[in-house]
């Protein structure tokens, strides 16, 4: 299914459920401050969110957050517009795709969590002094077309004088969850992976992290919290309380060691070796992946547009002020 058809399908679902979702919100007793939160995947990349959960920052705001993994950008946005999620954590690009369909109840970005790409380039062999032009003539096991990781990969390559899919081969038909397994099984010379998969493969001696896409692509609103305009209109206090908790978690992460952070988020990753967890946390902190406040910066938003334009995925622009609301973030910081 093409990206356009997927988005059209999402909008169709949205149109069908808007009325009923609105009724559901109004019928919910005010004493039950529940938030259904869908995340695009479960990753240490989203550490401040898990800190907010484990440290009880949502509970302090009178919120009960029900977190679930939607497993993919399209599924995550579908969860929002169908009414099965109140808030979602996913890339800003999804709201741009939806905005292009002129929805009656647009998806609004209201709080930023990560400000860089969170993926790494993993090589089959160790490379002491990696240069991006080493991708020329090679096979890269990449991410899905239209998704932010793949767009960032192509953006970085172009900046380094590489013509993606011309100077190299990019495989894009492997599911996100199976990328690490496919690489270990022998597919590709390089693979683009998120943590902790990259570090797990490295610890097993089956691959080696040689570069960071986040360092070389610049800051952008990579992963943000999004809700429907109708929820902002009907339950602004919920959105504010949610943002307050996220900001408190961001500040907590900023002011604590990776060892202390690991202690807090361990329940979210019970099967992950502590040494690997510390390595992952150190990588994300060292490259400034976690936003220290929830404001979605306009300059970073325009950098996102450049990344999408480079990939040929920005068919029409969505004005910043139409899909971004910084009121809750600014109030939380006050």
Characteristic key phrases:
globular; five-stranded mixed sheet; alpha/beta; 46% helix; 2 domains; D-Maltodextrin-Binding Protein, domain 2
Describe what you observe in this structure:
This protein is of the alpha/beta class and 334 residues long. The protein folds into two domains: 3-116 and 220-333, 3-Layer(aba) Sandwich (D-Maltodextrin-Binding Protein, domain 2); 119-217, D-Maltodextrin-Binding Protein, domain 2, CATH 3.40.190.10. Helix content is 46%, strand content 15%. The chain is built from 16 helices and ten strands. It has helices at residues 3-27, 47-54, 57-60, 73-81, 93-99, 148-159, 179-184, 197-203, 213-217, 229-234, 236-254, 258-265, 274-286, 298-310, 320-323, 327-333, and strands spanning 34-39, 64-69, 87-90, 107-114, 119-123, 139-141, 169-171, 190-194, 208-212, 223-228. The strands form two sheets. A five-stranded mixed beta sheet has the order 2-1-3-10-4, with helices on both faces. Strands 7-6-8-5-9 form a five-stranded mixed beta sheet. Helix 6 links the parallel strand 6 and strand 7 (169-171). The radius of gyration is 20 Å and the shape is globular. The N and C termini lie far apart (45 Å). Mean pLDDT is 90; it is low at 15-30. Residues 1-21 form the signal peptide. This is NitT/TauT family transport system substrate-binding protein. InterPro entries: SsuA/THI5 (IPR015168).
């Amino acid at each position: 299914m093409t990206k356009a058809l997927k988005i059209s399908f999402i909008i169709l679902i949205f149109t069908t459920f808007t009325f009923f979702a609105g009724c559901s919100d109004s019928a919910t007793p005010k004493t039950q401050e529940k938030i259904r939160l869908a995340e695009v995947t479960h990753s240490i990349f989203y550490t401040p969110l898990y800190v907010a959960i484990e440290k009880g920052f949502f509970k302090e705001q009178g919120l009960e957050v029900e977190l679930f993994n939607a497993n993919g950008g399209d599924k995550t946005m579908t969860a929002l517009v169908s009414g099965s999620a109140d808030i979602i954590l996913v890339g800003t690009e999804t709201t741009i795709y939806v905005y292009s369909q002129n929805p009656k109840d647009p998806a609004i970005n209201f709080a930023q969590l990560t400000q860089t790409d969170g993926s790494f380039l993993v090589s089959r062999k160790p490379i002491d002094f990696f240069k991006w032009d080493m991708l020329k003539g090679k096979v890269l096991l990449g991410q899905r077309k239209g998704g932010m990781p793949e767009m960032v990969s192509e953006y970085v390559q172009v900046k380094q004088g590489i013509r993606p899919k011309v100077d190299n081969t990019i495989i894009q038909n492997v599911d996100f969850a199976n990328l690490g397994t496919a690489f270990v099984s022998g597919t590709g010379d390089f693979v683009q992976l998120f943590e902790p998969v990259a570090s797990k493969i490295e610890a097993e001696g089956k691959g080696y992290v040689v570069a960071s896409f986040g360092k070389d692509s610049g800051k952008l609103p990579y992963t943000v919290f999004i809700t429907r305009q109708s929820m902002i209109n009907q339950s602004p206090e919920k959105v504010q309380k949610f943002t307050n908790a996220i900001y408190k978690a961001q500040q907590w992460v900023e002011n604590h060691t990776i060892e202390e952070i690991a202690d807090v988020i361990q329940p979210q990753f019970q099967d992950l070796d502590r040494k690997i967890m510390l390595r992952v946390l150190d990588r994300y902190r060292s490259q400034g992946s976690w936003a220290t406040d929830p404001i979605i910066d306009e300059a970073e938003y325009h950098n996102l547009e450049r990344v999408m334009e480079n990939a040929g995925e920005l068919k029409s622009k969505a004005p910043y002020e139409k899909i971004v609301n910084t009121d809750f973030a600014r109030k939380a910081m006050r």
